[in-house]
Amino acid sequence: MAVVEGIKGFEEEVVTEELTATHIGGTVRVFATPMMITLMERVSRVSITPYLDEGQDSVGTLVNVTHEASVPVGNKVRCESEVIGIDRRRVTFRVEVRDEDGTIVGRGIHERFIVDVDRFIEKTYTKK
């Protein structure tokens, strides 16, 4: 594993109907908090994947974020992540989402844990 502090990732996406609160049962047609968190997790995961050993991946273990501004359907959001801490297999990220005007939509801390995929799956599926 060669994950180091300072690794950054980013992704942009357009808010579609599938990413809105109404799509998941809410009443407001704006970028949904769970979808924002999904974007934060995905950007963080993808940013470190090239630095992992073969057979490894990372799983989310902590999300501590705020959702500070709404984004309507059709507008673009950009998520950025940066590795800010490493404790053995635990990797801590600073995550932030902004809209196309630069307004902070959400931000916070996300942690992922590096796992050996085969071992992780085996341990998971031995549970009853």
Strand content: 35-45%
Number of helices: 2
Oligomer: single chain
- Large-scale geometry: globular
**Order of strands across the biggest sheet?**
1-3-4-5-2
- Main β-sheet, in a few words? 5 strands, antiparallel
Determine the N-to-C terminus distance.
32 Å
Rg from C-alpha positions? 16 Å
Helix content: 10-25%
Low confidence ranges: none
User: What is the mean pLDDT?
Assistant: 97
Q: Given the helix and strand composition, which structural class is it?
A: alpha+beta
Q: What string gives the helices and strands in order?
A: EHEEEEH
Number of β-strand runs: 5
List the helices and strands and how they pair.
Elements lengths: L7 E7 L18 H16 L7 E12 L8 E12 L2 E10 L4 E13 H9 L3
Antiparallel strand pairs: 1-3, 2-5, 3-4, 4-5
Care to describe what's here?
With 128 residues, the chain is an alpha+beta fold. Helix content is 20%, strand content 42%. It has helices at residues 33-48, 117-125, and strands at residues 8-14, 56-67, 76-87, 90-99, 104-116. The chain has a 5-stranded antiparallel β-sheet. A hairpin with a 4-residue loop joins β4 (90-99) and β5 (104-116). The longest helix has 16 residues, at 33-48.
